[in-house]
């Protein structure tokens, strides 16, 4: 940049005072200050845009390297899974004694512990009956009577047994 010292600025001010005149000098100085400020802001904006574009390019490069690494990991994991599945199929077929080697297709591994999924069964509830809000499991757990009992039945229930004669 241009190196301005105090002596050079004083010389430029004296020449401007003589050429422009004392009545128009403050307005011209203000206009020059505004223009210099705009120029500095424009240069700062250009620098920021260049820095953003450089950072964006770096991020794109990093993204591509991470994607490549993830793709490589995915490929190695899938090949290991395929190899392990084929080994398990072979071991299973030898253990079962079928004598035939199972194919290495995915899903060919037989799981004897797999249970079939039960199909939907309608609960056959009578929706017209009025039901209490307290669930049956709660009543049973806390000893709440589920059915109404007459007074005579209750007395008979708790009457001591008669001695045998």
Question: Which key phrases capture this entry?
Answer:
165 residues; mainly alpha; 4 helices; 0% strand; cell membrane; membrane; TatB; transmembrane helix; transmembrane
Mean pLDDT: 83
Oligomeric state of shown chains: single chain
Main sheet characteristics: none
- Topology, number of strands: 0
Task: Walk me through the topology.
Layout: H1 6-20, H2 25-96, H3 136-142, H4 151-158
Organism: Piscinibacter aquaticus
Family: Belongs to the TatB family.
Biased composition (Basic residues): 156-165
Could you give a quick summary of the protein structure above?
62% of the residues lie in helices and 0% in strands. It is mostly helical and 165 residues long. The model has no long low-confidence stretch (mean pLDDT 83).
General description of the model:
The chain has helices spanning 6-20, 25-96, 136-142, 151-158. The chain is mostly helical and 165 residues long. The protein has a domain at 6-94. It is elongated, with a radius of gyration of 47 Å.
């Amino acid at each position: 940049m241009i190196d301005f010292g105090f002596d050079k600025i004083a010389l430029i001010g004296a020449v401007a005072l003589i050429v422009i005149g004392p009545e128009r000098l403050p307005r011209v100085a203000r206009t020059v200050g505004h223009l210099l400020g705009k120029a500095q802001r424009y240069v700062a904006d250009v620098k920021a845009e260049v820095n953003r574009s450089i950072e964006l390019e770096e991020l794109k490069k990093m993204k591509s390297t991470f994607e490549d690494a993830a793709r490589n990991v995915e490929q190695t994991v899938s090949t290991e899974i395929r190899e392990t599945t084929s080994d398990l199929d072979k071991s299973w077929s030898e253990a079962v004694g079928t004598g035939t080697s199972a194919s290495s297709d995915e899903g060919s591994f037989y799981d004897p512990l797999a249970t079939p999924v039960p199909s939907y069964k309608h609960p056959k509830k009578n929706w017209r009956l009025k039901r209490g809000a307290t669930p049956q499991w709660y009543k049973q757990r806390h000893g709440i009577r589920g059915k109404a009992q007459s007074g005579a039945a209750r007395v008979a229930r708790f009457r001591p047994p008669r001695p045998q004669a």
